[in-house]
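Lab notebook, bench 4. The sequencing result for the construct came back, and we need a structural model before the next group meeting so we can plan mutations. Quick request posted to the team channel:

Model the 3D structure of this chain.
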Amino acid sequence: MNFTSTLRDTLLIFRRQLRLSLRNPAWLIIGVIQPILYLTLFGPLVKHFVSSPSAASDVAWRIFVPGLLVQLGLFGSLFVGFAIIAEWRAGVIERMRVTPVSRFALLFGRVMRDAIALLTQSVILVLTGLIMGLRAPVGGILLALCFVLVLSVSMSSLSYAVGLALKSEDALAPLLNSVAIPILLLSGILLPLTEQSAPTWLYDLSRINPFRYIVDAMREVFLGSYADGTVLWGILVSLGLAVVCVMAGVRRFQIENA
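Done. Here's the predicted structure in token form:
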């Protein structure tokens, strides 16, 4: 596989997908409304629940906002598979079969578009958090946004692979909901899961959830801790998840175009 031609093909697909998205900017508004509502309505309750007289008043925001970023990355990217089903039904995927475009580019051009969209939404969410009282180091925020980008690559690739495999919205929707809700609950996104706050079996179950490590790592960097083992585990898990999901997505496109 020639790197230069693959890069050119990827940028070509990315530009096409980006133009299609910009024709309907409602996607950005809709995508960011839910986490902002969580931030506005649920954030103050979390603040009173987490904070103590000896704790800084913004500690709760530095726990809650990273969780919302992961939630945004999960739900914002996991459902892009519906778009690939629509493209398959319209014959777009079939027409691409006869082109020499790299199968990696067919996937990653779309994934890049999704990552840019999610990054835009994440920046809006962080800015809203800063207005509401979030205080976090700039380095921590930038590193957290990198986590979000990697998470977007993982979930978008996986969603496209599953969408192409099922080719049915009726099958994809319940499958994604059945997976996403347990991940949401077992990752400590809304409230941290600790040995003191959760039953032993639930805490042990959460430790096999890769999103748990990503959430914990993002909270550490928001607190200004970068050399912690938790951050290292989060980086390794997020990168490993991205590699596996991208490989699955590319393989699915290869099968479709065989």
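Confidence is low (pLDDT under 50) at residues 51-55.
Will bring this to the meeting.
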